[in-house]
Design brief:
The complex is a heterodimer of chains A (about 190) and B (about 575).
Chain A: E1 2-8, H1 13-25, E2 30-34, E3 45-53, E4 66-71, H2 74-80, E5 84-93, H3 100-103, H4 113-120, E6 122-126, H5 128-135, H6 141-151, H7 157-167, H8 173-184
Parallel strand pairs in A: 1-4, 4-5, 5-6
Antiparallel strand pairs in A: 1-3, 2-3
Chain B: E1 2-6, H1 7-17, E2 22-25, H2 32-38, E3 47-50, H3 54-66, E4 71-76, H4 77-82, H5 84-93, E5 99-105, H6 119-125, E6 128-130, H7 135-152, E7 156-161, H8 162-165, E8 167-172, H9 188-191, H10 195-216, E9 222-225, E10 231-235, H11 237-247, E11 252-256, E12 258-260, H12 265-271, E13 276-280, H13 286-293, H14 312-320, H15 346-356, E14 360-362, E15 379-381, H16 387-399, H17 401-404, E16 407-412, H18 413-429, E17 435-440, H19 469-476, E18 480-484, H20 489-500, E19 506-511, E20 525-528, E21 546-549, E22 552-555, H21 565-569, E23 575-578
Parallel strand pairs in B: 2-3, 2-4, 4-5, 5-7, 6-7, 10-11, 10-13, 14-15, 14-16, 16-17, 17-19, 18-19
Antiparallel strand pairs in B: 1-8, 6-12, 9-11, 20-23, 21-22
Helix pairs in contact in B: 1-2, 1-7, 3-5, 11-14, 15-20, 16-18
Classes of the chains: A alpha/beta (about 190), B alpha/beta (about 575).
């Protein structure tokens, strides 16, 4: 199973990939989680990969190989589209964050990304930012999306909750558990 | 017990299990987390520190080794350049306690200024180099590297790359070896490298390499997997994982865990079994050149690339001529999303002023390298750690006094301590007249908030003496030192104008902490009011929260952290602060 998490640096993709990785390891799979650190984290496109199965070799995912793409932002979802496997599923937070070339007017943010994605692939759009705010913290977007994705796997609800409890700092635990539940029950 | 560990964390674990006692490093992506993980072990068991630069770090580790402890130093590839001097000579002295240098290369340049292949250093310095492919190997190779170091009386390199360092995979944890510190005995012929002694030690180095070559012929680190007799693949590191993913059991493998010295007989015996042999290695043709030099016909860089990272699909295409799976390609060009300075970044104020004044900016390595990115595009040059100061001195000597009035250096606090200070000494000593701006954001930012000699905290967050930048610059001979807040743009502009026009060297300390520090508590957010004349001055800041809205401007409340810099640059007082 190949899962790709894409977003903008600062959106919490790293925590999402760690929750995912630590949940599947408890299911007895071989796992690889590839992360991004350093300069790319500063508001740039970030991509992390979570791969699990009987044996995983490469930690990265090539074009046409992702079973699920979890996208934290619309443009990044669109950028990642070619990585989705035929018959794969994309879950996207419908938030838009302008990249610097758009901010300075050098180019425009593509229109109707949702429609373009739907024409090509199986898409679930989520208002994750609104849900995260409702759960108590706009930063919990990552856990909302993990919740939506969790529903699409065979792994039991409680297993996810267990990992969140061991991965998320105590102080933010209640908000994150609520965010996960809201995402899961969408 | 099995645990999911980052490659870097696994290196730390391997060192811990080997009984490492001292670790000194300077942070650098993708190596930083090794030392950050070492710190998590009991301080009674392992001493760890951030050194001011990699040369110092390596020397601390060398000293610890001579003192009888197992010691290590970790750095990114360009950090190895900084520490190269002691490394080449400690190859001659050998060790007392096991000594390991972990160097992390960055193929694809995810967070680096060049794409150098550090395997060349192993050959040049005649030091054994191991290259793991996943976290389990990171741990085991590091553990074994200490034994190897002591057995062969040599420092040992562990070579990592970004994808190994920054991928998590499963690791079997073991207990820490109870490794006693070895006695210290004065040994001038071994540890004092002056010509007479060094000549004798060089003989030892050459003998040692022969012994290590014999080890390379065994299966200690180099493994053969025979599947099919048509195609053989010689590979190492992350490229082995890509090859396994792409080619599976359709080919046979010689996986080299030791990349220096390389085996001869093992390669020849393996290669003669196959119709075709490919060498699959990222960056330079190190293994390939070795194969060709010993007369083994291999296919390598002519079918692959010297640039960037390999992928399984690239390998599948070259070796099996199989195409990647079908996918939904994009039918249009979409905007790229380059990294940007964060909302609230203190450097934004500095570069806004430098750009406004039209100055030539000699830049350096850190988050503030992003001052070269649109719309600020203020930075003119970035070469290496510390070059902002010394290169500006050279530029001024080349182009003269008038040009110098349009020239400044910018360098972060940590980078200044790393190697900026020597450039400043050069300016003063050689009657230079430069203006150096130290961007003091109270932390090492780019690599993820490490303490440094100017923060007053050790790696374990214990309070320590803080380097006083003002006193330091004064002691060097700088008479004009001004501390200014880069968010007070009017005053900052005034200060910069004054200092570049001064007929003496000067230092400006641009002081404002990194917006991501927990101690920085910006609140609320900024909004555009109806006083806005649509001049778009605020958009020149390149703040990720401010963007065009028709012919006007809007502030994205989810991005804005209320730092208020835009309020300070608005000429019409048209931006106000609202509390949440």
């Amino acid at each position: 199973m190949n899962i790709m998490i894409v977003g903008v640096g600062g959106q919490g993709t790293l925590l999402a990939s760690r929750i995912l990785g630590n949940t599947v390891i408890n299911e007895g799979f071989d796992v690889k989680v590839s992360e991004v650190h350093g300069m790319s984290q500063r508001g740039g496109s970030v991509v992390t990969y979570v791969k699990f199965g009987d044996k995983v070799f490469s930690p990265v995912i090539d074009k046409g190989e992702a079973d699920i793409i979890l996208a934290f932002e619309m443009l990044e979802a669109y950028r990642a589209m070619p990585f989705l496997k035929k018959g794969g599923k994309m879950i996207v937070n419908n938030q838009k964050i302008n990249p610097m070339p758009v901010i300075i007017g050098a180019t425009e943010y593509p229109e109707n990304i949702g429609d373009k994605l739907r024409e090509n692939i199986d898409l679930t759009e989520v208002e994750a930012l609104e849900i995260a705010k409702e759960a108590g913290n706009s930063k919990a977007v990552n856990v909302v999306l993990i919740g939506v994705m969790a529903k699409n796997t065979d792994i039991a609800y409680e297993k996810w909750v267990e990992t969140i409890k061991t991965t998320v700092p105590e102080k933010f635990l209640d908000v994150n558990l609520k965010a996960f539940e809201m995402g899961y029950n969408l | 017990m099995k645990k999911l560990l980052l490659g870097n964390a696994a290196v730390a674990r391997g060192a811990y299990e080997a009984g490492v006692r001292v670790c000194s490093s300077y942070p650098g992506t993708p190596s930083t987390e090794i030392t950050e993980e070492i710190v998590k072990f009991d301080k009674e068991e392992v001493y760890a520190e951030w050194a001011p630069n990699e040369k110092v770090a390596a020397e601390v580790a060398i000293g610890a080794s001579i003192g009888g402890a197992r010691a290590m130093s970790c750095m990114k590839h360009v950090g190895l350049n900084v520490m190269a001097d002691p490394v080449f000579t400690v190859s001659y002295t050998g060790v007392n306690g096991g000594l390991v240098f972990c160097v992390a290369d960055d193929p694809g340049m995810h967070s680096s200024q060049n794409e150098q292949d550090s395997r060349h250093y192993a050959k040049a310095s005649k030091i054994a180099m191991l290259e793991p492919s996943d976290s389990e190997e990171c741990k085991e190779f590091t553990r074994k590297a200490f034994d190897l170091s002591e057995e062969y009386d040599t420092p040992v390199f562990i070579r990592l790359s970004t994808r190994v360092s920054h991928s998590q995979s499963l690791v079997e944890l073991k207990d820490r070896e109870n490794k006693e510190i070895t006695p210290y005995e004065k040994n001038i012929p071994k540890f004092v490298m002056m010509p007479a002694m060094a000549k004798a030690r060089h003989v030892v180095v050459e003998e040692r390499i022969e012994k290590l070559k014999a080890l390379a012929e065994t299966d200690a680190f180099n493994k053969t997997e025979i599947n099919d007799t048509k195609i053989g693949v010689i590979t190492s590191g992350i490229a082995y994982m890509y090859a396994k993913e792409a080619l599976g059991d359709k080919v046979s493998y010689l996986k080299l865990g030791m990349v220096y010295p390389l085996p001869e007989k093992l390669i020849k015996d393996f290669s003669e079994k196959f119709d075709k042999v490919y060498v699959i290695e990222e960056l330079d043709p190190v293994i390939e050149d070795h194969c060709k030099a010993i007369g083994v016909d291999v296919i390598g860089k002519e079918k692959f690339t010297l640039l960037g990272e390999y992928t399984p699909s690239m390998i599948k295409k070259v070796v099996l001529n199989e195409d990647a799976p079908e996918c939904a390609e994009l039918q249009e060009n979409i905007p790229i999303r380059p990294p940007v300075m964060c909302a609230g970044c203190p450097h934004r104020g500095t570069f806004y002023v430098l750009k406004k004044l039209g100055l030539v900016v000699s830049g350096d390595i850190g988050c503030y390298t992003l001052g070269a990115v649109a719309p600020l595009q203020s930075v003119d040059t970035t070469i290496c750690m510390g070059a902002s100061v010394s290169a500006a001195h050279g530029m001024a000597k080349a182009r003269g006094a008038e040009f110098n009035k349009k020239l400044v250096s910018v360098i972060g606090d940590s980078t200044f301590m790393h190697s900026g200070i020597t450039g400043l000494v050069d300016i003063v000593y050689n009657k230079g007249n430069n203006t150096v701006i130290i961007l003091d954001n109270s932390i090492t930012g780019m690599t993820g908030h490490q303490d440094n000699p100017t923060t007053g905290m050790t790696i374990r967050k214990e309070p320590t003496k803080q380097v006083d930048l003002i006193a330091l610059c004064k002691a060097v001979g700088i008479d004009h030192i001004t501390v200014a807040d880069p968010f007070d743009v009017k005053n900052f502009e005034k200060v910069v104008k004054e200092e570049v026009n001064r007929e003496e060297p000067s230092v400006i300390i641009a002081q404002r902490p990194c917006a991501l520090l927990k101690s920085v508590k910006y609140t609320g957010h900024c909004t555009i009011t109806d006083k806005c004349k649509k001049c778009k001055m605020c958009m020149k800041l390149g703040c990720p929260a401010i963007s065009a809205d028709g012919d006007g401007v809007k502030i994205d409340l989810n991005q804005c952290n209320g730092c208020g810099l835009c309020i300070n640059v608005c000429p019409f007082d048209a931006i106000s602060k609202e509390e949440n």
